[in-house]
Amino acid sequence: MNRRNFIKTGMLGALMAASPISISALDSATKPSTRPGRLNLRFRPYELKLRHAFNLARSQRTTTPGVQVEIEYDGIVGYGEASMPPYLGESVKSVTNFLSKLDLGQFADPFRIEDIHDYMDSIAPNDRAAKASVDIALHDLTGKIMGQPWYKIWGLNPEKCPNTSFTISYDADPEEMRRKIEETAPFKVVKVKMGVGHDKETVEAFRRHSNTPICVDANQGWTDKEQALDMCHWLAENGCVFVEQPFDKKMFEETAWLRERSPLPIIADEFLQRLPDVRRAADAYDGINIKLMKSTGMHEAYQMAVLARALGMKVMLGCMTETSCATSAASQLAPLADWADLDGNLLIANDIFDGMKVVDGKVTPTDRPGIGIVPC
After folding, report:
1. How high is the pLDDT of residue 6?
2. Would you give the DSSP letter of residue 162?
3. 3 state SS for 242-277
4. What residues have CB less than 8 Å from 83, skipping those under 6 apart?
5. Based on CB atoms within 10 Å of each CB, which residue in 55, 71, 140, 299 is the most buried?
6. Which of 328, 359, 354, 352 is nearest to 342 (CA)?
7. Span 38-50, average pLDDT
8. What is residue 158's three-state secondary structure?
9. 67: β partners
10. How far apart (Å, rounded) are the C-alpha atoms in residues 202 and 205?
11. Residues 134 and 41 sit within 8 Å (Cβ to Cβ)
12. pLDDT, tens digit, for every residue of 57-75?
């Protein structure tokens, strides 16, 4: 018996005896007949409702479209999720169309994650969030089969997980701005969204209430490199740790110029999508922000973190507005990161999973197998 079958046979019995898996109800239209010994895919749209309006450099929104995914194999269910903020270029329609094209029933072994990624790439070259939803569900499923969380399977030490930032954005209503700032109290780092024309006002408002270190995300909102450099110096004097995506992702030379002169590290976000982008980012950025919805999931995100480390770059682990499904999946990688921004589940009012926690400001994955979640 090979090692994979041995693990599956031994751990499956123990797992099923110790903790029965509950299967949530999805739309019947997405429920094919279950085929024993094969992967069975189910999915449904699920809109995420934000606690506060999200004010970014180029948009404002109060909801984020999402799709919830399940992959079942011999009675065990793995959960996954796609979250699609507008800049990703994906939608509920594009994700469900992509998932509808998949025939995962051709796979009799859920551990063949590499083969399944190759298959998904053969269906369409992009659709990164859609692919991430499948990848996350596969990792949850295989972790449950092995009876271990993925940080243990990867050999990572959860004590090395960093603090997570909590995100706030500018609001013209002073009372709403005050409420946003009050919500940051339990956190040891706060992310400030910038590039909306009120950058200094937001920091000054925050500093009137708190001395907590901040990081800033310009979301490609800055346009002038000299002004950006002045802002970096001002931010450094006001307790900032790093600046994320100051310019449009196409302004590569301007970003490299700023990186050479800035007193703060410059981190790539929108510039960075998948593994091939990491080497290019090294020429203009000090670090990268890895997000599962861009990287097609945990499989490639792990590779990106390892490569960035080898290139001497800083690693940040980020998220979209997501349920605890996707943030808990990302938390499995957190010991590889210098910084984390895994607050997506805390920014929504309708989470449907219990998963990773923030304990004394620190990312804390659960010891549950897989990605560490249970449906609420």
Report:
1. 34
2. P
3. EEECCCCCCCHHHHHHHHHHCCCCEEECCCCCCCHH
4. 48, 64, 65, 66, 129, 293, 320, 321, 322, 323, 326, 344
5. 140
6. 328
7. 97
8. helix
9. 45, 82
10. 5
11. yes
12. 456 678 999 999 999 999 9
φ, ψ of residue 289 in degrees (nearest 5) = -105, 110
Alpha carbons 53 and 41: distance in angstroms, whole number = 33
pLDDT in tens, 314-355: 999 999 999 999 999 999 999 999 999 999 999 999 999 999
Helix (H) / strand (E) containing 374: strand 374-375
* Strands of 266-268's sheet in order across: 165-168, 189-193, 214-217, 240-244, 266-268, 287-290, 314-317, 339-340
Q: Which residue is listed with tokens 């929104």?
A: 61
pTM (global) more than 0.85: yes
Determine the Cα–Cα distance for residues 194 and 8; give it in Å rounded to an integer: 48
Q: What is the rounded end-to-end Cα distance, in angstroms, of the chain?
A: 38
Query: Between the CA of residue 225 and those of 17, 85, 209, 266, 361, what are the distances in Å?
Result: 60, 27, 30, 13, 33
Amino acid at 349: A
